[in-house]
Amino acid sequence: MGAQCAITLARVFSGIQPSGVPHLGNYFGALSQWTRLAKERKLAVTECSIHDERNSQRCTVKPDNNRPTLIEFDTPIYCIVDVHAYSSPTIKYGTQLYNNILDTTASLLAIGLTTKNCILFRQSDLLEHNYLDNVLHNFITTQRLSRMNQYKEKTSNTSSRGVSNGLLTYPVLQAADILLYGANFVPIGADQTQHIELTRDIARNFNKAVVSDVFKEPQPLFNNSEHARRIRSLREPAKKMSKSDPNKKAFIEIVDEPDVLREKVKKAMTDNISDVYFDADARPGVSNLLRIHHLATGQSFSEIQAQFAGITSAQYKLLLADILIEKFKPVREEFKRVRNEHDYLESVLKHGHDQAKPMAVEMVMRVKNLLGSNRVVDM
User: Fold this and answer.
1) Which domain holds residue 206?
2) Active-site residue (options: 243, 249, 350, 368)
3) Known catalytic residue: 249?
4) With CB atoms 3.0 to 4.6 Å apart as the test, which of 88, 159, 227, 299 could cross-link to 303 if both were Cys?
5) 116 noted as active-site residue
């Protein structure tokens, strides 16, 4: 380490919208990392600034001899962010949203998360998120929020009359989610990078205003493979894979039945070149399938190309489908086992709530004391 500091346990936080069962882009881009972090509790990082809990000081972690530094961390905190879902223009409230929450919870358990290896809870069960959200709105400008890429993208084809304020202020609530638990690292997809920068700015603005370092400035944490951040639509490889795509064959859900999965891969857009090889610019469709193959098996592109030399892309699709069907078989089976156990799924979320609540309450009390809403005490 370049600067010596006694890091005890770093903290990881991340959230997922309850859009139902995740697709492959969600899984490889972020959720596979959730599971790895929950099970391993170790993280190899290059230079970054994190908080030393023992001395309440910020210090810099630097690699020795250009090798990443291994940091151990506390139980990761994962949140089903149902309040965020309210800002979606296409949300269906009531039974549909609740079923989506159960689908998401069951999916997370199916990929290996448990009450023993992580804290998993529902955002709306902790009103401390909403309190901190209201506070943090005072430490960022409307102009800055209106420049967020996701806001501009989602409103580009919508009349101003149809844009909710929740869509504009979504990143502030996201910042509240992260800062409430003092996260050092946030596992995210590439499209969330700008939101983490905003969170860091809000934390810095608040700390400066109250002359404190109460909020940590979190670091984004990406999947080690750049290809995990580039899973594309099966039908339009120029677009990222998304569940909001009206074409249901454009994405693969992690619990798709074998026949459904096979049909989606079979119908994936490729080209009229028979051979199978990676060329992201010239052959985006085939290259997207090769990315998925690489992420599912760990094989390099050259190994895959050598293994499947001499077969057509149509034949390759069927073989890839079999690989994905086998890889996600345990996930499908576990999902089926727990999905209809509503009381069990609620008990998992309640267990997570009970663990997260004291941390959230403590942070809110610190914030209120610093703002002067409570009698000021020694912090």
Assistant:
1) 13-229+342-371
2) 243
3) no
4) 299
5) no
